[in-house]
Design goal:
Elements: H1 2-34, H2 40-54, H3 58-61, E1 79-80, E2 94-95, H4 107-116, H5 136-148
Antiparallel strand pairs: 1-2
Helix pairs in contact: 2-5, 4-5
Amino acid sequence: MKKLTLPLTLSLAALAAATVVTTQCERAAGSSVATGDSSQESKVERGKHLVENIAMCADCHSARLPSGEFDKGKWLQGSPLGFKPLMEMPWNPAAPAIAGLPTLPTDEQAIEFLMTGKRPSGVPVLPPMPPYRLKRDEAEAVVAYLRSLKPAA
């Protein structure tokens, strides 16, 4: 009977731990739904997080100072790329300005672009821009953030 007690105890402990983790994850997921997360301010903040910490848009779309730091005065205002492909391929040598979304006049066009990786004309983006496939709520948040920024002069 002693041989069975330890494995049974470990199994029950693992089951209890899994239940706690699952419950906490469900609560965390449910809490964002419960708060609605629909205010424009929270949408802009979520978009900022996606742009600056997940998609890393500034790496290509923002100019850098000679020190290598971002030029905050030209944040997401477009920039020539500091790299190129090793072999011949379609390539965009400069990342366009995305602050204010000057090339995508409607929110729906911008959202579709972020969900499909294609311009309103149906043409896919050129490398090195990855063809993002954001979920609609993510795309809406990114658009809200980018629209909140001052467009390039």
